[in-house]
Design a protein that fits this description.
Length: 171
C-alpha cells in the first residue's frame, strides 16, 4: 500500500446525495444540452473570479460549531456525524469549483473518515480538527490549485492520521 492511500474501511453511513425523480423532466422528455452552452458554462467555471475565502471560512466555522456541540454534549451519534458531514461536503464540492482543489481533497479525506467511524470519540475529534485546520491554512495562505509538494504532504499526513485511527479503533 502506498503512503497516501487510505485503508479500506466498512462504511457505516453513506454521504452520497440522493436525487429525487424530476417529474417535470419526465413530462417534457429528454433532450440534450447544446454543446455551446456546456462550453460556456465550463468557461465560466474556469474563469470565475468569486472570492471563496469568506464562504470557506463560514463553512469551517460550521464545522467548528459541530465539534463544539459534540464536546458540549448537545449532539451525539448519527446527528453529530450529520452535523459534521454537511459543511465537509459543502467544502469538498465547492473548493475545486472556486480554484481550491486542495480543500476538496482535504474534505474528501474527512468525508471518507466520517463515513467509516462508528462514533465520534476524542481521537476522532482530533482528526476532524486537523482537517479543519488544514483547510483553514489553505484559505489563509490562499493556496489555490493543488498546493504542490506542500499540498501533497498535507493530504498524505491527514490520510496517515486516519489510517492510525482505523488501526487503533477499527481493526
Amino acid at each position: 500500500m502506498m503512503m497516501n492511500e487510505m485503508l479500506a474501511q466498512h462504511k457505516r453511513r453513506d454521504s452520497n446525495l440522493i436525487v429525487p425523480p424530476n417529474l417535470l423532466k419526465k413530462k417534457v422528455g429528454n433532450g440534450g444540452i447544446p454543446a455551446e452552452s456546456i462550453e460556456q458554462a465550463q468557461e465560466m467555471i474556469e474563469n470565475n473570479e468569486i472570492d471563496f475565502t469568506d464562504l470557506g471560512f463560514d463553512l469551517l466555522a460550521a464545522l467548528k460549531k459541530a465539534v463544539a456541540d459534540i464536546q458540549a454534549g448537545r449532539t451525539s451519534g448519527e446527528e453529530a456525524i450529520a452535523e459534521l458531514l454537511f459543511p465537509a461536503m459543502q467544502l469538498k464540492s465547492q473548493g475545486a469549483l472556486f480554484h481550491y482543489p486542495l480543500i476538496s481533497d482535504i474534505c474528501e479525506v474527512l468525508i471518507n473518515f466520517l463515513e467509516a467511524v462508528e462514533t465520534v470519540n476524542p481521537d476522532a475529534l482530533k482528526i476532524i480538527a486537523a482537517h479543519k485546520n488544514a483547510a483553514a491554512l489553505v484559505l489563509e495562505q490562499n493556496l489555490t490549485g493543488p498546493g504542490g509538494a506542500r499540498g501533497k504532504v498535507l493530504r498524505e499526513e491527514l490520510i496517515a492520521a486516519c489510517n492510525r485511527y482505523y488501526k487503533k479503533y477499527m481493526n
